[in-house]
Amino acid sequence: MSRRLVVVLFLDLVGWTRLAERVDPEPLQRLLEEYYEICSVAVEEHGGVVEKFIGDAVMAVFGADTSQEDDALRALRAATHIRTAVRELRTPAADATPVEIHCGIAAGEALVTRSPRAGIRVVGDVVNLAARLQSVAVAGEIVVNQTVAHLARPHFTMAPVLPVMLKGKAEPVPVLVVTGEADDDPAGYGSPMVDRRAERHRLRQAYHRVARERRPELVTVLGPPGIGKTRLVKEAVDDLVAAGAGPIAVFGTCPSYGTNGNYAALVEVLDALTRQAPAGAELLRADERIAGVLTSLRDASLSRLDESVPGPGVEEVSWAARELLTAAASRPLVVVWDNLAWAGQSLLRLIGELMDGLRDVPLLMVCVSRPELAGPDGPWFPQDAVIDVGALVPIDSARLAMSLAGRSHGDEVELHDLDLVDRVALYSAGNPLYIRLMMDWLRDGRTLDEVPPTITAMVGAMIDRLPAPARRLLGAASVIGPAFTLEQLALLGEEVPAANVNALAGHRLFHATAEEGGYRFVQQPVHEVAYGRLEKEQRITWHRRLAERGFNPGFHLEAATRLLGGLRPDDTELPELARQAAEALLGEGTVALRQRDVPTAIGLLERALMLAPSGPDGCRSVAAIRLSDALMLSGDTRRALDVAADGARQGPDGEGQLPCLVQRYLLAARLGRVTADDLGKLRAALAGGEPDRFAWCRFEQVRMLLHLDQGRFGAAEEAACAALGHARLVGDAYEEDRLLVALCEIRQWSPTPMAEKLSGCAELLERFAADRFLALPALAARARCLALTGDRSGARAALADAGSVVEQLRLTMGRVLVDQVAGLAASLEGGHEEAEERFRRAADALEQAGYVPVALTMRVQAARELARCGRAEESAERISRLLERREEMDVRGRILCLSAAVLASAGEGRADPARGEVSTLLKDIDDPCLRGEVCFDLARAHRCLGERSEAGVLAGLAADSYLAVGATKPLEAVREWM
Questions:
Q1: The pLDDT value given to residue 307
Q2: For 793, which of 64, 286, 402, 633 is 20 to 30 Å away at the CA?
Q3: Degrees to nearest 5, angle at CA 47 with 43 and 52
Q4: What is the C-alpha separation between 479 and 488, in angstroms, rounded?
């Protein structure tokens, strides 16, 4: 239950009561069914909900579940769509007159409730107002209140009428009649550009600054749909070429349909770079890794990526893009990202990273979008570099209409009637696209009276005039998306005669792209209307066929599911179709998660969770857990916990409860909130019945984290191996990847011999050869093991490889990992000053990132290195300060800090009482190298105090610990001391 601003639409048939008196009920019922179907389809496709049917009246609500800023526009568009569609119907009376509706729309605050029995219910005066407005509308008229007019006037033309007295209202109510609709999408090219001189000049100035100063600059071009943003940028680039500036200019466009918009735009840009810049093409030939990234991106943009083999991670993509842009910048670059309103967070983030990382490259980055990009999701562009493209003033609108009228080889439109010019300017609302579409129709001998007052209706009429085969071809293409290929059309079983393709291109409905056999819709309305005019059964069939052929299966199965649910909610195929859609979205979301593309993963997994049914296959529980993981990675801990909690309550028979219950404990363990008693209760909950491998896999991860928190690395390794076994039994590659990386990191501290650790590192480096982000921990672990075994050159080589990955992929926390291992390697070789600097730098970064316990351990390590390079007094002071914070440390940091304090006190001839605490902590430590280091500290402390027997025993324990694991380098130091 919530109070919210909603938009309520009421409509009914004109003359229904009179018709019912004259016509038999059976043909009337058939007419009603067709009418209801038209209304249901229009409301659903515009994001609304049909609240009720009452005889011939329909009530729909927009913004009931989730408010959208364009709810009023959606309601108006749904109403105009219904109005156009029902005119195709005929009354069953003898005269068979066309059917008409009249409509009222009101926006206002209401109370929205939902219940299983009653569904959505909207309570408030806005409902009554919408019904009354409908009652005063004449045939074919849409009447709105002032709130709707305020929300929609930039996109619809409306005429105020005298305030009307409505039933139940004490005062007359101001109302407006909708007289026309403005389109939402960018114009095609070929028409003259009017005005925009100042905006073009700003873009040219920005380019010349970039070329002169050889530094990147970002300009954002904002404006409502159809206002001419893309045209403006293209004209500015053409100006530069005409003036001899010679830029390398590339364009990438984000489609508004489907899930692969980020890939499509990025592939367009990178492919264009390799075509236009010889150095870019040469780099592609010389560097197999960059070529592989680009190939994977192309496959992903066509939805051909094998889910079982994830493509490059976001870090690898960012690196490849930087390298190509840098190589291509032999001449100044202009990179245009068009239609960014449809971009995902991943692409927006990539653009920001490129601007941050390309410091000395002559690059003009132009972002073209709707004004929404200026909100909180687009903080990376400077506000003083925004070009706001507004509507044309009426005189310029008229000038554009006049210029268009005199083109096209003498097919002039008679515009001597100034009233007609004014009407074109008025209906266009200063939008060049609307003017161009109107003039195209007028050039065909039409008049404004012959077309609906909305741009969408104009596009619909344009489609209706096409031959039937061309309309079917257009419909098939619309199901594929805004861009499509002849190959994809063939998969739908559609013949593609050249005459049909040429006819559609001649009508400017789509144009050829650089890809062989590829085409793109010129305008979004054409795509939307072509799709909306298809029968739902046909859409379902084609969506399913594309999914079966492996083209974007998640999106197409999801679309088919929603269409079938709206068409036949009780269809026996619907549950299975929903399950297939959920599994496909889950697979795509998991791939995105494996690539660390967290925003995309969250979106896909949320959709999978909405569709996934409860059942023994566990799809719903896995989707909930993957979504919880993704939310945790994004830093949204609260939502991660909520998703796991909701999953633990799902299902009437408890299906999926156990894995989600374990997920709750796993999240709690990561936050340090799980005890041994909690683990016992969880084990008891899992016992009995058929084992749920996925739940047990996550349970072992909880156990692993609990052991790690207590410094029991051997036990943690055993738990990780058990979890890995469960993951492999169910074939879960995502879990396997995570656990292999965790196992590699844990084994650095566990009793596993060095040779086995190095073998494990080699296996991981081979497995993750294409994903250097996941390979980094294995490189660091390899360097640590080699340093401990005395292989100085091998350790240095591994560290160099790790450092190269960190530098190229710009991994902040990766630098911390490299510094930790490099500090250890330097210390073992006697480079204690370098070691101290490395540990201190790692501590600073960790503390800044909020990892206080590990940061304190690094500070302890740095303080210990001071003592080893002869700065004992400074070391003792630091250790003393750190001891005051030992409760904040992990077990490793605490015992190292205490043993350093014991050794420092012994150097001053004092026996530190902390020796007892060190001995107690040491009993639970199974990290041989840590045991060896602490025992060696204690041995030297005893010798300083003259306790040679105790010193010998502890030195022997240190040697045994190092020997057991094969750490020969520190073992040599102990033996030499002994």
A1: 57
A2: 286
A3: 45
A4: 10
Instruction: Give the span between the Cα atoms of 948 and 944, in whole angstroms.
Output: 9
DSSP H or E run through 73: helix 71-86
pLDDT at position 184 is 43
Whole-prediction pTM: 0.70
The Cα 629–Cα 670 span in angstroms is 11
Q: Which residues pair with 101 in a beta bridge?
A: 13
245 exposure class (CB count in 10 Å sphere: 0-12, 13-18, 19+):
middle
Which among 271, 348, 316 is positioned nearest to 600, based on CA atoms? 348
Q: What are phi and psi of 812, to 5 degrees?
A: -60, -50
Alpha-carbon gap, residue 421 to 397, rounded angstroms: 9
CA distance 742 to 669: 15
What CA dihedral angle connects 485, 488, 489 and 490, to 10 degrees? 120
Q: How many Cβ atoms from other residues are within 10 Å of residue 955's Cβ?
A: 22
Helix (H, G, I), strand (E, B) or coil at 65: coil
> For position 183, what pLDDT does the model report?
52
Q: SS3 for 770-781, per residue? A: CCHHHHHHHHHH
Helix or strand (DSSP H, E) at 145 = strand 142-145
The residues, any chain, with a CB within 8 Å of residue 878's CB and separated by 6 or more, are 859, 862, 863, 866
| Helical spans, DSSP H, in 753-831 | 754-767, 772-788, 792-809, 812-828
61: tokens are 């609500």
What are the beta bridge partners of residue 518? 485
In this structure, how many other beta carbons lie within 10 angstroms of the beta carbon of residue 59? 21
DSSP string, 722-737: HHHHHHHHTT-HHHHH
The closest alpha carbon to 779, from 830, 808, 829, 741, belongs to: 741
Cα Rg of the chain (Å, integer): 34
- Give pLDDT, residue 108: 81
Query: Could you tell me if 280 and 324 are in contact, meaning their C-beta atoms sit under 8 angstroms apart?
Result: yes
918: how many CB neighbours lie within 10 A of its CB?
Answer: 23
Write out 477-509 in H/E/C secondary structure.
Answer: HHHHCCEEEHHHHHHCCCCCCHHHHHHHHHCCC
Alpha-carbon distance of 756 to 736, in angstroms, equals: 19
Q: Mean pLDDT in runs of 10 for the chain (978 residues)?
A: 77 81 80 89 87 88 74 88 89 73 88 72 88 89 85 78 78 88 48 76 93 92 79 90 89 68 83 91 90 86 59 88 91 91 84 88 90 54 76 76 60 50 64 67 55 39 68 88 86 74 70 82 70 80 92 93 89 92 94 91 93 75 92 89 80 66 90 87 84 91 91 91 94 92 90 92 91 92 94 94 92 91 94 94 91 92 93 92 91 92 89 86 89 92 90 92 93 90
Q: Do residues 636 and 643 touch, judged by C-beta distance below 8 A?
A: no
**Half-sphere exposure of residue 226: CA atoms within 13 angstroms, side-chain side:** 23
CA distance 459 to 464: 9
**Count of other CB atoms within 10 angstroms of residue 113:** 14
Query: In sequence order, what are the residues at sequence separation of 6 or more whose Cβ sits closer than 8 angstroms to the Cβ of residue 268?
Result: 250, 251, 252, 253
Distance CA 675, CA 669 (A): 8
Residues in CB range of 505: below 8 A, 6 or more apart:
511, 512, 519
Single-letter amino acid code for the residue at 337: W
The predicted structure's pLDDT at residue 452:
28
Q: Which stretches within 243-313 are classed as H helix?
A: 261-276, 278-286, 288-301
pLDDT (0 to 100) of residue 373: 62
CA gap 52, 119 in Å, rounded:
10
> Distance (Å, rounded) from C-alpha 904 to C-alpha 106?
79
A 10 A CB-CB count for 4 gives: 16
